[in-house]
Every structure is written in C-alpha cells, then in structure tokens.
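Box 3.1 A note on notation
Throughout this textbook, protein chains are presented in two layers. The first layer is the amino acid sequence; the second is a token string describing backbone geometry. Keep the layers aligned when reading.
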Amino acid sequence: MMWVSKHQEDVLSFSTSSATKGNSATEPYIVAHNMLLSHGTVADIYRKKYKAKQQGSLGISLDVIWFEPATNTTDDTEATQRAQDFQLGWYL
C-alpha cells in the first residue's frame, strides 16, 4: 500500500493576470513551506497510527513543470537547469 500526499503549489500560490493582491515574490515560498509541513504532519500521523498495521509506505507527489533545452547550447542548458531548480529544486 502506498500513501501519497498530492500538492499542486501552482494552483494555490502563483498569481494570474486577474490577481490584484498579494505578494508573488514571497507567497509561493510560504505556501510551499506550509505544504511541506503538512506532508510531514501527515507522514508522522501515518507512521504512528497506521504503519504497523498496514505496512504501507509514504510518498509525496509534486506537480511541477519539466523543462528541456530548446537547443544544445550552454546558455539553453543552463537556463533549463535554472528553471528546473526553481520548479522542483526548492522542494528537495
């Protein structure tokens, strides 16, 4: 059995063109921080209350965008890595 906590940070934190309030420079990080804390809380509850009986494992599913370089140039490869680090790296 596998228990997964699913997090869609883009739905919760990133502003759209219609957003007029909030701080998109800091709020996505606050949301991500709280999502990781909530996953940790659920993982702790599962380990303490259910794991012994269910023998399951825990995982987290992050909804991130995967990037590929447009060309094989160093600039495109480095830009791709920066984009990937921003989308996924801050969670790892």
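The chain has one domain: 2-91. The helical segments are 9-13, 27-49, 51-54, 74-87.
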